Amino acid sequence: MEYQLSVFLISRPFTCALDYRLSAASPPQPGCRVSVPLGTVSANLGIIVRVQEAPSAAQSLKLKEAIVLDEKPVFAKDIYELCLFAADYYHYPLGQCFFTALPSLLREGRPAQFKPEPALRLCPGAPAAPSFKSEDLARLFELLRQSPAPLLKQELKDRGFSATQLRTLVKRQLAEEVEIQDTNEPCWQERCKAPLKNSGLELNAEQSQAVSEVCAALGSFKTFLLDGVTGSGKTEVYLQIIAAVLQRGQSALVLVPEIALTPQTVERFYQRFNAPVLLLHSALSDQSRLNVFLTMQSGRAAILIGTRSALFTPLHALGLIVIDEEHDSSFKQGDGLRYHARTLALKRAELNACPLVLGSATPSLESVWQAQNGHYQLLRLTQRAGNAVMPECTLVDLRKEPLSLGLHTGIGHTLEDAIGEETARGNQVLLFLNRRGYAHQLVCHNCGTIFTCPHCDSALTVHRQEGKLRCHICDTSLKLPERCPHCGGENLLENGFGTEQAEAFLRLRYPDLGIERIDRDSVKNKDNLEQKLQRIRNGESSILIGTQMLAKGHDFPNVTLVGILDIDGGLFSDDFRAPEYTAQLLTQVAGRAGRAAKRGRVIIQSHHPDNLLIHQVIDPSLPYLSLAYDLLQARLHLHLPPASCQAFLLSNSLNREKAHLYLLQLLQTLTARLPQFRELSIGPVMSDKIEKRHNRYHFHIQVLSPDQGQLHAFLQAALQAASLQKGFAEVRFAIDVDPLTLY
Question: In degrees, to the nearest 5, what angle opens at C-alpha 71 toward C-alphas 67 and 72?
Fold first, then answer.
């Protein structure tokens, strides 16, 4: 039988499907992958979007032959529909949306097959209670002893055990490595008669109300905004809602920022549920990611916890989506398909007729706006769990602090004394500085030369421990020079400070205390991070300093002092979102103090102590939501998102003039069509704030409209006009809908 297939190629930016023929006994299903010829390339990967009988033998012969790679679709129906929506909303080629949604091995045309993964089980005849010097080893042994089946090594690593600890049990012949095969087991519902190990913690009235409201909506599409102060027990609320979902025989998807995927958080899911839990994050190998994809697709696991891209994983009988820390900017993809996980999660929840829960101590203004307009139901948790109280905040005027050695590294005299007091009491201290490296830039004192990246318009950051100058945009590194290459001068000044320099001062000032630095330079992988966090939890280290990796997702019961070294950078930015981001960061970091029985305090250092935003954040009588309403009013007054819809038209090229001219010509074409879009405003062609990045020059046009439909109609016109421009083969063009950054 001859069939005609309409195929979207996943590696080409085509906006329409291509037709191919197939000789087969039965028609393939839409959502299957095919290998097809195009031009001189004989094997292009595509996705079938439509199948029909070939119209005639003569016409069919004009079509090239396709080879079907899958017996059944790799796309579940809801994921397929989600990609259609994403292509339309973000004005991005459908085939490349499919590319984004597939695990990398499936993009390469590999078989959709589960491959064995290494696991551990106890050795036959292992003693019931061997002695261990390490509590973690004892806990690992007990986990294996209680498990009826081998445990994946990756799962054990996700739960906080190091590769060294796993090897230790094997060397002592207490455990052995085996492989878990694809056994074609039935769905988890058939294998797991009791999905819960325990019923969880006792809820307070606010938590109970939140759980009841969401559970009442199970089986229907509804969006909830869970606004809970730090330490209010949002995770327990999620767990109890998920328990109700599992009792209905359905599965749950939990999205978190990468930095929130800590063993501490993950362990709560494993401790609560008998039903299988899987994780999807950047540390997994390509084959492990495919195994997770196939396991969730087949319904052999009940809960998937993952970062942004986990949104595209097929789940059998999806009954709930949770986005924790929904305000976090990591949920927005920065290139390719520039999607926001929250926007697509809304669509996926609608497609599956299930609730979506957005949780945060500092909800995004977009979500607050939707709740205010009645599109989301607001649920509030205003009390800290376990009777913990909110920390006391102190604002330090750095202008009145002595110009000490500590202040040169970001730690003023008042904060320095407070660190000494708290650590002397046996408590722990967390210091936050959202600037890594030793110094912000290197300057020649003789000629004024600032050392900049050869590939970007960016000053190179000093990393003294590495002996390097490093670009924080493209990661180019150069050897730390001894003299200026322009004038030969040897007087090179290090301006500004970062976490590395603050750490150096702390080690000098408190040589007897354990100090942990957590940033992208000191933490290379999850094992690295967990080792540092474990030393804090064990009390081996007393001071923790880091960037926004520490701002959320962590619980430190013995941290009684949080110091915010430099908040001023976020107060005076040309980005209209800067006040929102600053308020969120202040609130999230301050929330790390006093999480248990001990009262916490927060010291905020500023050269601008009269700033209204800081006073609003630290005012104990003003909850974050009230501050968010004030910020929303300012946005409304200026007709800025979320009160209006925003997009950027982007271009970049190795040739600066071409990148600029491309948008100039496009703007001229679009200006002639503006009378059709009366409420829409379009800006001039502007260079990005950092124009040169990775050797390419970047320009943009901003588009604003109070009407979403009008904005998308205009963007479609822009896409069509851009496709007709000639002579710009090397220029890259893109559209960013609902951007989170100003270019």
Answer: 120
Tens of pLDDT, residues 660-689: 999 999 999 999 999 999 889 999 999 999
- Strand pairing partners for 280? 306
Q: pLDDT tens digits for 435-449?
A: 889 998 999 999 999
Domain 2-107: give its CATH architecture.
Answer: 3-Layer(aba) Sandwich (3.40)
pLDDT tens-place string over residues 261-311: 777 788 999 999 999 999 998 889 999 999 999 999 999 999 999 999 999
Mean pLDDT of 215-238: 95
Q: 202-386: what fold?
A: Rossmann fold (3.40.50)
Task: Scan for tokens 């942004």, then name that residue.
Answer: 308
Domain boundaries, the chain: 2-107, 117-180, 202-386, 388-438+497-634, 645-737
Q: Give 137-202 as a DSSP string.
A: HHHHHHHHHH-SS-EEHHHHHHTT--HHHHHHHHHTTSEEEEEE-------HHHH-S--BS---PP
What is the rounded CA–CA span in Å between residue 90 and residue 81?
Answer: 14
Considering only the top CATH level, what class is 645-737? alpha beta
Spatial separation of the C-alpha atoms in residues 423 and 405, rounded to whole Å: 20
CATH of domain 388-438+497-634: 3.40.50.300
- CATH architecture of the domain 117-180 equals Orthogonal Bundle (1.10)
